[in-house]
Design brief:
The chain is of the alpha+beta class. The protein has five helices and ten strands. The longest helix is centred in the middle third of the chain and has 22 residues.
Length: about 240
């Protein structure tokens, strides 16, 4: 299944001066990433840049060898690519934990992440923290990876911006909570990957509307989601990615 078009954007948002979000891609290895960093100016954005490099490098090394031994985790249920990307994220997680342990609390950083890797007609998605992924097919939108956030832990009425605080993240706790899904792709499918600066102010119906409107290209679809979220009072960094097959 060929990737026909791709679009992504990341922005600091309408009020913040620093962007701790980020995205990355490797078309040769069919690897795509969206990350939402935290830790404050000078910390979160550096952690995101380092994580992008470490995940990509580790994944490329291990996925190129079909006989590779998975150093941290292995499941017979997963594809080689799924095990490889999970090991890549776990390795980056352990490195960041060790780095954070050497720093005072106010200088520690981490990141939520959503990573997709393609293996022929299958797309494997791995999510940690407060990122969200949708699958669009034949006019219907379904959530394939839900965010792991504070809103699912308590019924208390938190301020809206705190409800999307991650319950797990790279570099946050020793145990890395994660979700993995596989999607068998079909022509016309779209995968949408968002940080909470985009999805927190949008309904599923509004995301679907943006995907079904006539627009010049995928980049315009991405931009329309950010603009709508900002018009609803977004205060956060924002990253969105669309993969169209």
């Amino acid at each position: 299944m060929r990737l026909k078009s791709y679009a992504a954007t990341t922005h600091q948002g309408p009020y913040l001066q620093v962007n701790e979000d980020g995205y990355d891609f490797d078309f040769e290895n069919e690897l795509f990433m969206v990350l939402d960093g935290f830790g404050g100016s000078g910390h979160g954005e550096r952690a995101v840049e380092k994580l992008k490099q470490e995940i990509r490098t580790f994944y490329t090394q291990i996925s190129d060898d079909p006989n590779a031994t998975m150093p941290l985790f292995y499941s017979a249920r997963n594809l080689l690519e799924g095990n490889a990307i999970l090991n890549s994220m776990m390795s980056a997680h352990q490195n960041l934990l060790r780095h954070n342990a050497e720093l005072p609390i106010n200088q520690r950083a981490g990141a939520s992440a959503l990573v997709a890797v393609k293996a022929e007609s299958l797309l494997v998605l791995l999510g940690v923290g407060n990122c969200r992924a949708y699958h669009f097919r034949q006019g219907k939108l379904s959530k394939i990876l839900a965010e792991d956030t504070l809103q699912y832990l308590s019924k208390d009425q938190f301020n809206h911006r705190f409800r999307t605080s991650p319950m797990s993240a790279i570099g946050m706790y020793p145990e890395l909570g994660h979700q993995m899904r596989e999607v068998r792709l079909a022509p016309g499918d779209k995968i949408i990957m968002l940080t909470d600066g985009v999805y927190a102010h949008l309904s599923d119906e509004e995301v679907l509307y943006a995907l079904t409107q006539s627009m010049p290209d995928a980049q315009e679809r991405v931009n329309s989601l950010l603009k709508l979220s900002n018009s609803r009072g977004n205060l956060d960094n924002q990253t969105a990615m669309i993969l169209e097959f």
